[in-house]
Amino acid sequence: MLRTPTGGAGHGAATAEEGSMSIGTVLIELRDEFPEVTISKIRFLEAEGLIEPQRTPSGYRKFAPRDVERLAQVLRMQRDHYLPLKVIREHLDALARGEQPVLPSPGDRRDLADGVWDAAGPGAATAVRIGRAELLAAAEVDEERLEEWESYGLIVPAPEGGYDAEMVTVAKLVADLGRFGLEPRHLRAMRASADREAGLVEQVVAPLRRHRNPQTRAHAEATANELAELSVRLHAALVQTALRSRLH
Questions:
Q1: What pLDDT sits at residue 2?
Q2: How many other CB atoms sit within 10 Å of the CB of residue 116?
Q3: Is the dihedral angle over the CA atoms 74, 39, 55, 2 positive or is it negative?
Q4: Beta bridge partners of 117
């Protein structure tokens, strides 16, 4: 249970100031329910627009009780529903508009490429997958081209058969890059880089998956998703920086 400071009526602005908390105090408030939360995590969620604490004239963050409760909501949705930040933001925005959006149960999975829930229903153990024909149609390529992509490891079937929803995005991007003359052999370095980044993420979340606390183990997937988002943003920024240095 979160503990939020309270004050009597009539204190006005002084009460609002006294009721605010520093980021360190917020961390202490959240630690009982969210033992893995860190100051860096709170700052990251602020940078992503999930929370908007006030700032003092000297730049220090001051969190109102409503900020702490919203932060707890975000952390619960990550932990209990394994949702990426974009979906969490959309859900909170809908609540702010007075809507009553429904969150998936922990067994549900979402195809974020098109926003469709897995037809397998609650408790399904597998994510949305498509067949080879659907992948060919989505990427608008022929069988020969898809086989070439697979030979270079750019498109990888799921172990259980078919293709994960993410492969649709990969196939479309590979096709788009091909229109600029970039062949699969040129993209092998990107694949190798992605594998290395995935290995780094796995190193970070491995201790969470081995934790005795079931909630901490369940939080591993949300943490991996967050790290993946950060990795993609860093990669994009580094590419842009490298391009600017070469083109100017």
A1: 59
A2: 11
A3: positive
A4: 110
